[in-house]
Design goal:
10 helices; five-stranded parallel β-sheet; Rossmann fold; alpha/beta; 11% strand; DNA polymerase, domain 1
Length: 215
């Protein structure tokens, strides 16, 4: 029986896997309530412009100018930015798991994520993701967004590893399907425990008793 190709590289999403989503509809609703904004108007403006921000074609200031500060507000841009960034929270179990697997199995780790530049940079710095991630293929840096398959092709070129040696952990089913269409084996992440079990099936065991937190 032919043995499966060993995994040498992990592709990881950030939002929903390592951290909470950075600026999803829940966070925007909290912001709208906190700053007394009209939710429907904010959402409509967000959806018209956020993809461009995530592709690195708008700065955060330009995005906020279109979505929030297109009229005079009783709060400052700095106050809104602080609130926006504060919505990001870590999943310590998943961060610890990725760090541990990197060391134990000698893996390269790359993030493949849709995030705007300022938010992405804040999250990398705040949660020390660069302490274990080797490559950041973020939409804001490469000007491509999932589900565009080209972002995965760029990631393959950057990590310099064949698709068959890569395992991708992602919480969005469509993005998993796109990666698998390129020959990248994938795990649809729903929780820490099930992801650990699936990792083990690929030969990537974590050290029992070291990580106890769930995400």
């Amino acid at each position: 029986m032919k043995r499966a190709t060993p995994i040498t590289t992990l592709f990881l999403d950030i939002g929903g896997v390592l951290l909470t989503n950075g600026w999803d509809h829940h966070a925007r609703k909290r912001a709208a309530v906190n700053f007394k904004l009209e939710v429907a108007e904010m959402e409509a403006r967000h959806h018209l412009t956020f993809d461009i921000y995530e592709e690195g074609k708008l700065t955060l200031e330009e995005y906020l100018g279109r979505v929030v500060f297109y009229q005079k507000r009783p709060f400052t841009r700095a106050q809104f930015r602080r609130f926006m960034f504060a919505q990001s929270k870590p999943y310590p179990g998943m961060i610890g798991l990725a760090s541990q697997l990197k060391v134990r199995h000698g893996l390269k780790i790359a993030v493949v994520s849709n995030e705007g530049r300022e938010l992405n940079s804040y999250r990398i710095r705040k949660f020390k993701l660069d302490g274990f991630v080797d490559f950041f293929i973020s939409s804001c840096f490469v000007h491509l967004r999932k589900p565009d398959a080209d972002i995965f092709r760029v990631a393959l070129d950057i990590v310099h590893a064949p698709a068959g040696q890569i395992l991708y952990i992602e919480n969005t089913p469509m993005f998993v399907q796109v990666a698998e269409g390129l020959g990248i084996r994938s795990i649809l992440h729903t929780d820490y425990k099930s992801t650990c079990k699936q990792l083990a099936s690929f030969g990537l065991q974590n050290d029992e008793g070291i990580i106890h937190e769930t995400s």
